[in-house]
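Checklist before submission:
- one chain only
- standard amino acids only
- sequence pasted in full

Submission:
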Amino acid sequence: MIPLLVLSLLNPTPTLLIKRPWAPAGGEMIISTWPNYAAEGTVVLMKHDGTIINEPATFVEGKINAIKAFPAIESLDHAAYLQLIVDDEPTGSPLVVTPALSRLIPVMEEDFTEGRGTWMRIVGWEDAGAEETEGLPLGSGLYEGAALDAELKRDESVIRSGWWVRPEMDIDMDTTMGEIRIDLREDAAPMTALNFQRLAEDRFYDGTIMHRIIIQGREGRPFVIQGGDPLGDGTGGPGWWQPIEASTLPHDFGVISMARSDLPDSAGSQWFIALDREETARLDGLYCAFGEVIDGREPLVKMAQVPIGDNEYLSSRPIAPPSITVMNLVPATPRNPGKGRSESRVEPPDTGPWSKE
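Returned file contents:
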């Protein structure tokens, strides 16, 4: 029998390679393929949903300068995906092209809620580039509303420094209740997705528990599963804090987002997965959603219904908390032009606490 490793070397899957992960504004973004024969194919630039942004490009002497081949890259406001096409079939993991843009800073206003008291709410966003650019029209760089549309177009106040280019990777979360696969949404919250990816790569999440599970939120429906705390009591973190991003990803069932305190830039490692749109729609724009579960609905459903020992809303600790056995990074599947990935976000069940009856 021929070993699997030898077979993979004899029949390698063509995939895109990047010469260096950082491409400065005004520089080059050189991509090639492995193995070299795949350079006979073409490359397509697309959005997360598969919408083609530019005409496909072909290789010249085994490489492509993507910035020249895809002019739309220079005006990207969200991450996009470069996919290799060989013999009319997408092959290998895409490359994620993330523009390095000036930060959108949250605009805060004081709010009051019964039971919570006075707190600060995000009501909009301000482009940090507006402070560095002279002669802008009044109101440049200001965006009203906490939840922004996925098609948000940055105005002339934005500062564009270059692009980060990396192979797209998924998260494989192996738990005591089953395996969960997460598509990181770099197009919605690139730095938050990268922070989560790096923590997973460093084995930070291995052995951590789901310390907070709320099966009945304000509207009486399933709310969230929360984890990512190395201490397991809701107080721990990685020792740093992640600046909040203006995520364009709604908190639907199966969407993963960052937990935080009242301070917008206080997220570190704790995450939560939304369980019901009716309960979690109010979180849009206030918390940073950065990924979505594309496989593993049953483990989510089982976790959401474990017995809870403490039913206090702010704790809701399971009697026997589920835990993450191991979390791995795995290559993402190819993207189909016009369609996106073959996998889509898991759908909520229509039975049990999710029933509409």
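Reviewer check: The domain at 168-354 is CATH 2.40.100.10 (Cyclophilin).
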